[in-house]
Amino acid sequence: MCFEAASYDEAFEKAKRESDHYVASAEFAECEAFEQLQAYQQDGDPLIDGYEVYSKLYESRESLGEFYANRFERYEYHPE
What we know:
The chain is an all-alpha fold. The chain has one domain (8-75). Helices cover 36% and strands 0% of the residues. The protein contains two helices and no strands. It has helices spanning 8-28, 64-71. It is globular and about 40 Å long. It starts with 7 loop residues before the first helix and ends in a 9-residue tail after the last helix.
């Protein structure tokens, strides 16, 4: 989601509050949510506050830890 804010900290707090709703919804649906927050500073035209610009949803029979390791950690790049 996009959050208009005067500072990174203010935007992060808005995002964290929104994230809490997703986590509660996942728990209600008897699912696990991986609480990972990413922030990017937008450098173009203003966006709409609260507008969702990116999200991911996956289904897996693996545990959350196994899924994360197989989906993301396996492909980490470690330059020499």
